[in-house]
Design brief:
With 260 residues, the protein is α+β, with helices and mostly antiparallel strands. It has a single domain, classed as Creatine Amidinohydrolase (Alpha-Beta Complex), CATH 3.90.230. Helix content is 27%, strand content 25%. The strands form four sheets. It has a five-stranded antiparallel sheet with strand order 8-7-9-14-15, covered by helices on one side. α1 (2-15) packs antiparallel against α2 (25-39) and α3 (108-128) runs antiparallel to α4. It starts with a helix and ends in a 21-residue tail after the last strand. The chain binds magnesium ion (2 copies). One magnesium ion (MG) binds at residues 96, 159, 194, 196, 227.
Length: 260
């Protein structure tokens, strides 16, 4: 799974330099698709069933779009934020990861939203080393976001991942008594989950757009999304979609510029 995760990480390094004013979201998607094909990796998002099959290899969600945005002719403008979410399988194993990038300069409150969302993902990974149950991690994630003055999206959650992209368990970024009672799970070696907080600046509520896929905030305020595929090993959590560690053999991914 680390190999699939490295290819997903490298795909994000292909996408990141394209995030600038004047570029369309379809151009970014095309670059990621070409990269996956060159790696012999199978894109996981294209063809995901819905009212219409998902048509692209990335979900690209701009500003008030939360998740599941469809790449297209939209041109990025200074001050936008763009969430790029993508996944692939390699050798029969899956990886899934998302980043939200600023396009040029963004306002201070939007910058704070990006930092909060990246921060709550980092917090979750840290806590996975020291907590036994997901409910305890999720409770602290929700508190972190609340303390930032933002809201955690509750309509969408993370997921188990392995041979397929979406497996049990469901991995919410918040905790309810019903979750703790009925759906909680142990953080034990062998577990692999995609942790993916979605944070809204305003209301936590989302609404679908009429393209059958894109989910937007109800109040039109911005939303951010970060995701890593994380394994629990005997030595603790391992981020499978992280950049290559020093000394790690990552030569099989085509060399690309940039860092995580
Ligand atoms: Mg994803
Ligand atoms: Mg995911």
């Amino acid at each position: 799974m680390r190999k699939a995760g490295l290819v997903v990480w490298a795909a994000h390094q292909v996408a990141r330099p394209l995030v600038r004013p004047g570029v369309t979201t379809a151009e970014i998607d095309a670059a990621v698709e070409a990269f996956f094909l060159a790696q012999g990796a199978i894109p996981l998002f294209k063809g995901v069933p819905g009212k219409v099959p998902f048509p692209a290899v990335c979900c690209i969600s701009v500003n008030d779009e939360v998740v599941h945005g469809i790449p297209g002719g939209r041109v990025l403008r200074p001050g936008d934020i763009i969430s790029i979410d993508t996944g692939c399988s390699l050798g029969g194993w899956c990886g899934d990861s998302a980043y939200t990038h600023p396009v040029g300069e963004v306002s201070p409150d939007v910058q704070k939203l990006l930092e909060c969302t990246a921060g709550v993902l980092a917090l979750a990974i840290e806590l996975m080393a020291v907590r036994n149950r997901w409910s305890d991690v999720a409770t602290e994630m929700a508190k972190y976001v609340r303390d930032c003055g933002f809201s955690v999206v509750e309509n969408f959650v993370g997921h188990g991942i392995g041979r397929t992209m979406h497996e049990d368990p469901q991995v919410p970024n918040f905790c309810t008594p019903a979750f703790r009672r009925n759906h909680d799970f142990e953080l034990e070696p062998g577990l692999v989950i995609a942790v993916e907080p979605m944070v809204n600046m305003g209301s936590k509520k989302v609404r679908p757009l009429d393209d059958y896929w894109t989910q937007s905030t109800v109040d039109g305020r911005p939303s951010a999304h970060f995701e890593h595929t994380v394994a629990i090993t005997e030595a603790g959590p391992a981020v499978l979609t992280a950049p290559p560690a020093s000394g790690e053999d990552a030569a099989f991914v085509a060399p690309v510029a940039g860092d995580s």
